[in-house]
Input
Amino acid sequence: MIRRVLDALLREGYLGSGVPVRLPELDDEQWLDVGGRYLPVEPGGFLADWMVRRPGVAVRSGGLRLLDGLDDVLAVFTPPNDADPDERIGYAVFADECREAAQAIELGERHRPAVLARLDARYGPAPSGIPGSLFYESLAAHLDHPVYPTARCRHGIAGDELLRYAPEFAPEFELRWAGVPAQVAVRHGHLPAWWPTPALLGLPARFVPFPVHPLTWQAVELPGAVLADATMLRATPTLSMRTVALVDHPGVHVKLPLPTSMLGARNRRSIQPGTLADGEVVQRLLGRVLRGEPSFAGRILLADETTWGQAGHEHLGYLVRRFPSGLEGARVVTVAALLAGAPDRRPVIAGLADDFFGGDLLALLGDYLRLLFRLHVTLWLRYGIALESHQQNTSLVLERGQPIRLLFKDNDGARIDPALLGHVPPVVDRRMIVDGPGELCDVFTTITVHLCAGALAFGLAEQDVAPLGELLALVRRRMSEAVDELAAEPDAPLLRERVLEAERLPVKSMIIAGTLRSKARTGATDINKYYGTTAPNYLQVEDLS
Output
């Protein structure tokens, strides 16, 4: 984890640019001098000019010595006492985040054998359908985020609470409930027939039942709500943790606010009023687009996110997510799990290649990338839509005798250019509406390209599955094919120029915007879309086909 933290601080420019030096007292390799502190580095890495080649930092203190403990390394970069107070506070929070993540990783490793046994008993050797997708989400929870170094920190949640509620431990628990005054509750869509009634929960009839995550129920004051003593609906966490799958109702997930932050202290896991309605708007928009694109018929699947409730408070809200029917015999695997270690210690994608592609992993990867880029390039160039469909929100659907399919969910972070779309969609969050292709390109690059394609190539190469150059050439080839199909669209040359042919690509500064620095300092209107730096374009590779 020390290496990942240092890589991130370097990548985002928090430590400055640094000066390459040699330290023959320690070794004959490259070091980077960042203000009198020396990092062991080598050129390259994912989204970086330099990558740390071994964990630790060298300092001169009575001679040159290497510090390789987490607390020692964090202490080296602590801002001085005369630094901006916000800078000191932000770094202190980040240091705590690092420690919490390290503890969560250790806890996960300690319990992994028991979790694998639990998953095997629950899902068997070939986990199928939407219920089986939870097998892969639990495996993915043991894997680090491609970019954010402390993703396994859930601020304020640790120890026994992680064991009871975090996806890497595959627990089951009962949902709590709150009664919301009817005049306050905003509800949309059609609840399932089995949804608890006030009478079943022991609530007065004038209250509307809202599901509440147990962590929220015990930690957050919910003004105007009446907390029910009864628990109903058994649940198990998905990879996002705040979304849970209902054990007795396969194919239904419920998204709930959590009193924590993930991927940054400012990245709160509550549900802001308006976001659920925006997600529905984008889902319906995508449905209309796909109906007009017959080449995607049956290949692109959308979760139904039209049933939701809010009560004007960030911790009182829910989304009932229904998945498409007919997937009982399919393997549904989040992209986030493809690099995760399966019980046989190989990456998940290797087992999927055995089961569906005769062991040809590159054929599986190529088919996935072809459909991924065809969809997202079409959405951008033809309709002015860039989805925030990162590796957690995108799933492969694999079934014998069927071409590969993709399943998408959680679309409230999209960016939309009305000039290309032809109208202004009625979204609450006006940040979703952009003027021109620039922000579409940034979202496409940092989400679709980096997280859903580039990270896979680098991860598979790191696991010695295939040479990095061959994997990156495949990514470039599939993207080029998608752009070639739409070469007549006005923004096609811009996509080529800013993604395929650019010397450098935009990179999110996730820890700077999420934890280290305030919004006032970064100027970020959306901490999840703060493009604070760039990196060499890894797509500038020779096509080895």
